[in-house]
Give the backbone structure.
Amino acid sequence: MFQSITLSGRGQSQVLVLAHFQGQGLDARSKKIAGEHGVAAAAEAALKRSEATGDLGTVVDATAEPAAAPKGRGKARSGGAGVERVLIVGLGAAPGKDGFKVDSLRSAAAAVGRKIAAIKATSATVEVSAAVADAKVDGFDAGVAFGEAVGLLGWVCDHFKGKGSKSQTRGKLALRSSDGDFNEGLERGLGLAESTNFCRTLSQTPPNVATTSWMANEAKKLGRKTKMAVKVFEGSDLVREKFEGLINVGKASENKPCMVRIEYNPPGRGSARRSGKPLVLVGKTMTYDTGGLSLKVNNGMVGMKRDKDGGCAVLGAMHAIATVIKPKRRVIALLAIAENSISDEAYRPDDVLTFRNGVTVEVTNTDAEGRLVMADALCWACDKENPAAVVDIATLTGGVVVALGSTFAGLWCEDDSLRGKVEQAAGVAGERVWRLPLHQEYKDMMKSPVADIVNSNPNRKAHPIQGAAFLSYFVQDRVPWCHLDIAGVHATEKNAGPYIDGPTGWGVRTLANLAEML
């Protein structure tokens, strides 16, 4: 959509963006701004048109009268700079007892971004904070939401287009606002969108490129760029650390498994900032999943390059943590990376694996492999990192899609404090989570007659909860832990709002916000 989106200083823009609510005209401050930019008459006329309903995401486009344009293009007028046209975006129902939600601004911003791209404008002055101020929305928060939406909309992954496709010209976009708080929010929002788009590009990369070693190298490159420490456990390291899940799930593939550890340390030399317990993020990073010997059927392998999206989200979150958020707490990322393939080396149903915490697992389905590699990372997190909290994120079960569709991610967390912060962080990001139960009866469902537990109960009851129940056996009781199943939300088939069809980067902004809040 856009080649780049930047925050610009003062100067003339081609487009002025204003906002209004259903059944209302412009507020007094927005009217004044329109006058300063020479588009007051055009804006007033536009709001009289039938399409100017104020419904969320509707955009009325008005071209400024020639007489209203400033003399000498590019020169500032007294009180403001002239623009060529004004876009007035609808914000939906007027603020009432429930209040206007800042997340609605993402929808409005996406509509504005699509219109700006359609008219091929390269610069815009965004003056919507006056309208949302009446709805008790902080200018900074409004700027973050607007920047995130436009930044997400700008993502394009055309790396794999060849000579058979026509190259598309993408313009650069510069944004600005007269509201300092909104500008600061825009900067943060665009930064968080950049981190999310990094995740989306990783997700989109095909499995013949995004191999296990390629993912590890991407983590190393991120570490060098952001000065985060990166360690890769591979080969004999996996044996020494008893990473049984990675060893067995990955041994059928020529692309060998590994565990990647990334550490963010707060800036500064103060030991107090570095010595506290870290937040640990765990990402399921299956670069491809055939199902193993329990082979996927009915074209079920298509799209399995995205079985790494939990790990992609963690990498994107670490990018945001190091470049945008810069929290005062240490953050550790663990990526459990493997490819689930088929050969005479493959692990089998009926195998029994013994994990580093002593728990034994009877394999009943080699297509329930993600939880096995994540078990290694969870054991390590509890044994080695002394975490303040552990949050894992994974495309773990089809069952969560049946339960929640593509509207909510599944959330399991029995620690009230951590759960509240995850829900808050997700709310700020506009990413929805829904708590599901983790009663002892679900854990008992996973018990095996041969080993301690099975990796998949053939009984499909509570299918998404089975995954969380399995993982709970590898988290120490003393450690606050949250499991996020993103199988329904990590990609979309719609070209709508701030997303085109493809990966969404779900979780990057939630995890980054959490690092700041925890």
User: Anything to note?
Assistant: Residues 180-204 form the longest helix (25 residues). The longest strand covers residues 279-289.
